[in-house]
Amino acid sequence: MPSKRSPADRAAELRREIARHDTLYYDGRPEISDAEYDKLFRELVEIESAHPELVHPSSPTQRVGAPRPEGRGFETVAHSVPMLSIDSLFTGEEVAEFEKRIVRFLGLPSGDDLVWVVEPKFDGVSASLTYESGVFVRGLTRGDGVKGEDITQNLRTVRNIPLVLDSSKRKPPRLLEVRGEVLIHRAKFERFNAERVKQGLEPFANPRNTVSGALRRNDPAEVARYPLEFYPWAAPRIEGETFETQVEVSSALKDWGLRDAGYSRCVKGIAAAIEYHDELEAKRLDVPFEIDGVVAKLDAFALRDRLGSTSRSTRWQYAHKFAALEASSTLRAIETMVGNSGRLTPRAHVDPVEVGGITVRHATLHNADYVASLGLKVGDRVFLRRAGDVIPQIMGVAKAAQGKAPRGWDASVPEELLDANAPAALGDANPNVQAGVAWQWSEIYAMPERCPACNAKAVQEGKYWRCPNAACPPQVIGRTLVLAGGGAFEIDGLGEKQIAQLFDARLLESAADLFHLDRDPSAKERLIELERWGEKSVDNLFGELEAHRRILFARFLVSLAIPDVGPATARLFAQHFTSLELLREASIEELQHIDGVGPEVATRLAEWFADAVNRRFVERLLAGGVEIVYPKHDAASGAFAGKTVVFTGTLESLGRAEAKQIVEDQGGKVASSVSAKTNYLVVGGKPGSKAKKAAELGVTVLLEPEFLKQIGRD
Q1: 320: closest CA among 103, 105, 117, 86?
Q2: Is the pLDDT of residue 594 over 90?
């Protein structure tokens, strides 16, 4: 019988009880049946319905919010602390080398005393939760690491995410940001799929993709049906309490009701971290969640602070991946893909096969030399693996194609490889296959002499082939995808199909024309005439274009789709050049002066800007109202503000990487070679030719004690 206490007291008691049973359920120690749990929940619903003044956002009855309007995307929000990547390592030797770099950086005699926290690398979807005064207020996806999508309402439906932090053991902080992985238990996934099949629905392929799709649904009530769970692995922001180690933070998170999955361990020395990896890999199928490796992170925050991070990843942790799972299938065909830079790349089509929970139909083949080295022929039975458990690759031939083609072989060419404009159909004995495809039994793949998309004569560049025609349709569409993508202008709602429509309708001739669409009086009417384009979707696109015309310099450089210039390299250029004009007029030697930029990247960038077509492309973008936002280069603070520093020789007091970080933190730039623009050459033991060149150019030379005095470490 329900308690005769006041409704307010009983509601508070029920909230506490339901939260406790949620925790027990996800710990695998349920004390009551589902029916008993539902009875408690219904009682709370009845009390809150009768007394609306008792309803609180933290109540378990409020986990499910109202659905989002159809067609509206999630709001993009900047992460207060970027969600950087983790370096992936695949062998014990690579892990040992990672530790050596840390030891050198920190100036330690060995890494034997380094303490590591090791835990499974879950194959789920990363998310960030923010609590203010103990109340859950925001949940974001990782996104591109700089910005994520606000999926707060969907994350509220995950039952083991506390809406209010537990304060019974430890007072919650003023602000807490906790990051972790959203997962589905393997057994619960199987039961969920079985229920779908009963309802006449298609089963989902694997837990990870199911989680990703669930979190992007517009209706939280639908998300609540998925058996999602959240397990934390970091807390980058805690205001109101100070911690010195990851172990201390994990203990606090547990006290607040954010429990990990129970597999983490604290070990001393890299050998113990490798041993943990090997032990977990041996029983990976016994872990109830999908995992693809181990994450190891230094326990001490003081060491993490010294190590810092690069533009894309942290230096104090790594992911040691498991050996890829393998399968075999029949090689049905090899097509030639055209990349956005014009590179021609072979791609394998295989009979559908499950590899590590993913249905694989295509596999990468890298280049023609790689295909030849494997000795592949169409019809071979081949070994497949998911590299890093992600990208499918063909690793070798299990059984070669021999004799005559099996009956019906010619009629089994994958439909996507047929020429849509030709009259032949799948049942024909000799289907009309697209150009650049090897599909006949026992056929050996050869790189086509002409681009399969535009028929331009292909040119060889080392072991690669490239289509030189900048107007080649796949290249133009690919570059437009890059420009509109997450690392560049972030134009929501523009995918490959929509972009192809715009080019087919001659609304675009180049990616730069995108920012002229909303300024063309006739464009809206022409867009509405296209399939699946309505007035609302056109207005949304025009709104996106107007809202994203201002762009950070690094993102602008990414949008240009310059070969080998990704987000990390673009940030290096943006940090060293105060304007686009200075960058595009820089010589190859000046570009190589940037630490982290090699001769190949420097040459590609210089050649790209030297091309008149590319210069016109940039001018067309700017003419469309694009405004570049340059980073503020503060030349007024820091011992090396506005100065360029080069290191040579071995420093005794600190590692080279740490010294570089200190210079950058104090407003300076670190270059790899001495030039007339170098301000200081810091000389350690056994200096090389740089010291002689510095003397010739009159560059100020700092011995190690002088450098230490400059940075305040004398």
Answers
A1: 86
A2: no
Strands (E), 532-641: 550-552, 627-629
pTM over cut 0.85: no
- Angular region, 664: left φ>0, alpha ψ -120 to 50, beta rest: alpha
The separation between CA 144 and the C-alpha centre of its own chain, rounded to angstroms, equals 6
How do residues 360-371 score in pLDDT, each as one tens digit?
Answer: 999 989 889 999
- Over range 268-276, report the average pLDDT: 97
Q: Of the candidates 27, 103, 175, which has an alpha carbon nearest to the alpha carbon of residue 654?
A: 103
**Using only C-alpha atoms, what is the Rg of the chain?**
29
pLDDT at 449 over 70: yes
198 vs 592: CA distance, rounded Å: 62
Average pLDDT, the chain: 88
SS3 562: coil
Alpha-carbon distance 480 to 473, whole Å?
11
In whole angstroms, give the CA distance from residue 332 to residue 330: 6
What are the residues whose beta carbons fall under 8 Å from the beta carbon of 572, sequence distance 6 or more?
A: 311, 594, 595, 596, 597
pLDDT of 619 over the 90 cut:
yes
Q: For residue 607, what are the CA distances in angstroms to 479, 480, 563, 613?
A: 17, 20, 10, 11
Q: pLDDT (tens digit, 9 = 90+) per residue, 106-117?
A: 999 999 999 999
Q: Residue 702 pairs with which residues in a beta bridge?
A: 682
Angle of helix 207-215 relative to helix 186-198, nearest 10 degrees, comes to 70
Report which DSSP code applies to 357: T
pLDDT tens digits along 458-514 = 999 888 899 999 889 999 999 999 999 988 998 988 888 999 999 999 999 999 999
3-state SS of the chain: helix, strand, coil percent to 5?
35, 25, 40
Residue for token digits 């086509």? 448
Strands 125-132, 265-268: pairing kind = unpaired
Residue 109 tokens read as 């005699």
Q: Where are the alpha helices (DSSP H) in 169-269?
A: 186-198, 207-215, 220-223, 246-255
Contact 117, 264 (CB under 8 A): yes
Whole-angstrom distance, CA of residue 79 vs CA of residue 651: 36
Q: How far apart are CA 556 and CA 574, in angstroms?
A: 10
**Tokens describing residue 40:** 């408690």
194-204 tens-digit pLDDT: 898 888 887 88
Look up tokens 């992936």; give the residue. Answer: 88
Q: What is the pLDDT of residue 53?
A: 83
- Copy the structure tokens of residue 391: 């990208």
Using an 8 Å Cβ cutoff, are 486 and 143 in contact?
Answer: yes
Taking residues 424-444, what's their average pLDDT?
A: 78
Which residues are known to be catalytic? 121
